[in-house]
Design goal:
Elements: H1 2-23, H2 29-45, H3 55-65, H4 76-91
Helix pairs in contact: 1-2, 2-3, 3-4
Length: about 100
């Protein structure tokens, strides 16, 4: 579980920095979308074995279900999944951390 939580930390760091950079005008729409696509792909690849009942499987399934719909990191369902993942990582003593590059 700790490896999956570490991967999630890295991917959420990309997500949150992309959001901050977009809001600050540091990156444009194309770069923003490319970074979110990378986050989506990365989360879908996080292995759920040997613990297939954790929320990593749910997060991957949610993102995969989007199909051609653009991943929105502000979507309520994604936020709820991230909250559950964070709680599971915390409970396994592998807390999720995000490193911000813009203003925070």
């Amino acid at each position: 579980m700790s490896a999956a939580c570490g991967q999630l930390s890295a991917l959420l760091t990309v997500q949150e920095n992309a959001r901050a950079d977009k809001a600050a005008g540091v990156i444009g729409d194309e770069a923003y979308r490319a970074q979110l696509d990378a986050v989506q792909f990365g989360v879908e690849q996080i292995p759920t074995i040997p613990e297939p009942q954790n929320s990593f499987g749910n997060a991957g399934a949610y993102l995969s279900s989007l199909g051609d719909t653009a991943f929105d990191p502000g979507a309520t369902e994604w936020g709820e999944l991230v909250d559950r993942l964070g709680a599971e990582c915390q409970a396994s003593e592998s807390p999720v951390g995000i490193s911000r590059t813009q203003g925070g």
